[in-house]
Design brief:
CATH superfamily of the largest domain: Metal-dependent hydrolases
Structural class: alpha/beta
Oligomer: single chain
Helix content: 25-40%
Bound molecules: N-(iminomethyl)-L-glutamic acid
Strand content: 15-25%
CATH class of the largest domain: Alpha Beta
Largest sheet: 8 strands, parallel
Number of strands: 21
């Protein structure tokens, strides 16, 4: 029985489905990771959902391709699932380039924060911006994320720190755009200046007013539990209050020092614990036990000149690992998840297969979207990338460039020839020179 489709992506050098068992047996370095790679493969979708993946040679037998279906010949390019970036404060105003220079001169992240810079300087700029200004900034950034291959991302608040300013950030993050967004309230990012010295009063405001008012507008609640931010006891108050209101839980933990946030996350059954630069062996065991996803942000280690989270040890212990950008104006100003993949391989010794899995299915698990995105399997959203390479292994290896030439999100062409397209071109004529999405 053949399957009807309205989109067929064919001619791939390989299709990386991320569905173990769907392709050839893994071989070569990293052979223990089965990404379900189909050599000379194709992907078909209908109404935005994947309906079939398989070898090019089986298209005629497996698929019914109506005359008005869109057929995209990618001419030998590798096709991989769209990236899922599970840690990005998307909406904020201002910039902090001077802080970057000060850190190169020896100042630390916390010294800059204590001198009035850091998160609170972005809070001042974000409060001063209108919702429309923030939405316009978000739309530009989403274009950049999409051009670099991200089709799903988390949009955190955390630069408003009043109910109205956090609400404004959430609203701006809803700007119309093909990138799928998952919302997180990070009102407990830092104590705002007007509450200086009164951290517990601010935590009470977060728990008693901000989180209840925003319940239903965001899937997750998050808290920055670290030296210079909130204690484990304060983080527990926030997460328990959020959980009682129906939010799912995330935490920033062990980024600047080891303070115990990971153990807290595991004990509360958090969906993810993020950063984890300073975690211990006991923390790793606790994450494994609770099923909490470890979201690693190597771009932050790169920017802040710190050590990297122990990705290999986490994987060896059986913890689900996600890679994300941490796109923000202070500790990591990059929307390029390919760079995070490259850093994870270079600095953490992940294999290309492990890193790509972390940037797709790992990110999906960190957002609770593992049944919707992250792999090319029947029933999931047809979100895929066409690479300027015949193999996914070039993602970390050919670094510092954008290897994504085309993007399909929800079965629609949204990046064509490296440019975001607002409406899909109607031609189905193949042009070898333009990255293959025609
Ligand atoms: O994830 N750690 C806290 N939040 C961000 C940094 C935010 C900022 O410096 O503006 C992070 O690294």
């Amino acid at each position: 029985m053949s399957v009807r489709c309205d989109l067929l992506v064919r001619g791939a050098g390989e299709v990386v489905t991320m569905a173990p068992g769907a392709g050839q047996a893994p071989h070569g370095p990293g052979a223990s990771v089965d990404l379900g790679v189909i050599p000379r493969g194709a992907v078909a979708s209908r109404d935005g959902r994947v309906v079939w993946t398989g070898p090019e040679s089986e298209i005629a037998a497996a698929l019914e391709v109506p005359g008005d279906a869109r057929v995209v010949d990618v001419e030998g390019a590798a096709v991989v699932p769209g990236f899922v970036d599970a840690h990005t404060p998307l909406v904020w105003a201002g910039e902090r380039a001077a802080e970057y220079g000060a850190r190169l001169g020896g100042a630390t992240y916390l010294e800059i924060q204590e001198a009035g810079g850091g998160i609170n300087s972005t809070v001042r700029a974000t409060r001063a911006a209108t919702e429309e200004q923030l939405a316009a900034l978000a739309a530009c950034r989403l274009d950049s994320f999409l051009r670099h291959g991200t089709t799903t991302l988390e949009a955190k608040t955390g630069y408003g720190l009043t109910l109205e300013d956090e609400r404004k950030q959430l609203a701006a993050a809803e700007v119309a755009h093909p990138v799928r967004r998952v919302h997180t309230v990070l009102a407990a990012h830092l104590t705002p200046e007007e509450y200086a010295g009164r951290d517990d009063e601010y935590i009470a405001l977060v728990c008693d007013e901000i989180l209840p008012a925003l319940a239903g507008q965001a899937e997750f609640v998050d808290v920055f539990c670290d030296e210079g931010a909130f204690t484990v006891a304060q983080a527990r108050r926030v997460l328990e209050a959020g959980r009682a209101l129906g939010y799912r839980l995330k935490i920033h933990a062990e980024e600047l020092a080891h303070t115990g946030g990971t153990a807290l996350a595991a004990s509360l059954g958090a969906v993810s614990a993020d950063h984890l630069i300073h975690i211990t062996g006991e923390d790793i065991a606790a994450l494994k036990e609770s099923g909490t996803v470890a979201v690693l942000l190597p771009g932050t280690s790169y920017t802040l000149h710190t050590t990297y989270a122990p990705a290999k040890e986490l994987l060896a212990a059986g913890v689900t690992v996600a890679l994300a950008t941490d796109f923000n104006p202070g500790s990591c100003y990059s929307e390029n998840l390919q760079m995070a993949i490259s850093l994870a391989c270079q600095e953490d010794r992940l294999t290309p297969a492990e890193a790509l899995r972390a940037a797709t299915t790992g990110g999906a698990a960190a957002l609770g979207l593992q049944h919707e995105v992250g792999s090319l399997e029947p029933g999931k959203s047809c979100d895929l990338l066409v690479l300027d390479s015949a193999t996914h292994e070039e993602l970390p290896y050919h670094w510092g460039v954008n290897l994504v030439t085309g993007v399909i999100a929800g079965g629609e062409v949204v990046v064509h020839d490296r440019r975001v397209v607002r409406a899909a071109p109607t031609s189905t004529v193949t042009s070898p020179a333009d990255g293959g999405l025609t």
